[in-house]
Specification:
- It is a single chain.
- The protein contains twelve helices and nine strands.
- By secondary structure, it is of the alpha/beta class.
- Strands 1, 2, 3, 4, 5, 6, 7, 8 and 9 form a nine-stranded mixed beta sheet that branches.
- The longest helix is centred in the last third of the chain and has 25 residues, at 297-321.
- It starts with 11 loop residues before the first strand and ends with a helix.
């Protein structure tokens, strides 16, 4: 990642990558601009949208900096935003998600009070559409600011190997960590954020505030692309190859824990592929899962089901040419 501009002493920069996000981008922007108590630089990176995303962002005038690029993916868009940012802190928000009141105040206050950490995230809730497809945010449930100080837990590299406990739209990082960690990996079509938190955890403990301060909009496109590869397994494999199972503070995973994690990743991917009618990649995934848990009855059952499905696929293909 190229060198970043000199930081302001007070500013927080917010990076929003956006691709065909015209339906929701205003909600995301408004949830940032209504945060009080802190100066914000808001950068929206339009990743080659073909809808009205850029036009909607332009209506905000000088309150938002609009950057535009040809479509290259969320990782490249976030990197472009980080490159243009000037803040002491950098925060991330996806274009179809929203922040809740008090998010920035709480996280910046926590980082100021805890110099030992350079990455702060929070809890989040899922925002589901109603029967008409409308997303309604309940002000009684989500309109109150958290009380200070907010309780927190510490996440280590080993914790993240077991699960991605960090969600991108909740993250605030110190600028120094951005310089140290670099950019998001554009070769990962999914899981670039997971990869980034694992890399960051090699440099800093991660603090997660015990308060719900963002909403993840379900059913709006999250997770629907690039389902042909087990990207989460690729991220974990990359980390294990480079650093193994032990964090810099000395905490690690047992062989049993890592075997179960690898089984879980392969089993879940195989199950998803089977539901999509993709018997061959499902069979491969279940075969790998059996390497970690050879006697697991459910894995054996699904492996046999995917094998039968693969035979059926080949039979159909053969009959089509007969």
């Amino acid at each position: 990642m190229p060198s970043v501009p000199r930081a302001s002493s007070r500013l927080l920069s917010v990076v929003i990558p956006a691709y065909n996000s015209g339906r929701f981008i205003a909600d995301a922007i408004d949830s940032v601009l209504t945060q009080d108590g802190f100066e914000v630089e808001l950068l929206v990176v339009d990743d080659g949208s073909t809808d009205d995303t850029a036009q909607i962002v332009a209506r905000y005038g000088g309150a938002v900096t609009l950057l535009r690029q040809t479509n290259a993916g969320a990782a490249v868009a976030r990197n472009a935003g980080m490159q243009a940012a000037h803040g002491r802190y950098v925060a991330f928000l996806d274009a179809d998600d929203v922040w809740l009141p008090g998010k920035i105040d709480s996280q910046v206050a926590h980082l100021e009070a805890h110099p030992e950490t350079s990455l702060c995230c929070t809890r989040w809730d899922l925002l589901h559409p109603d029967s008409s497809g409308t997303y309604v945010i309940d002000p009684l449930a989500y309109g109150r600011r958290p009380r200070d100080p907010v309780a927190y837990s510490t996440l280590t590299y080993a914790d993240l190997l077991l699960d991605c406990h960090v969600w991108t739209s909740t993250v605030v990082v110190r600028r120094e960590l951005v310089r140290q960690t670099g950019g998001f990996d554009p070769t990962l079509r999914r899981g670039q954020d997971y990869d980034y938190w694992l890399r960051a955890s090699r440099s800093t403990p991660i603090h997660r505030l015990d308060a719900t301060l963002a909403l993840y909009r379900m059913g709006s496109g999250h997770g629907k692309k690039f389902a042909d590869k087990n990207w989460e397994l690729a991220v974990i494999g990359k980390a294990l190859e480079k650093w193994g199972v032990t964090g810099p503070e000395g905490r690690g995973l047992s062989p049993r824990q890592i075997r179960r994690r690898l089984w879980q990743l392969n089993f879940n991917f195989g199950h998803g592929q089977l539901n999509l009618g993709r018997a061959e990649p499902a069979q491969q995934a279940f075969r790998e899962a059996l390497r970690q848990r050879p006697c697991h009855a459910r894995t054996i059952t699904y492996f046999l089901a995917s094998t039968i499905g693969k035979w059926c696929e080949r039979a159909r293909a053969a009959s089509a040419f007969s």
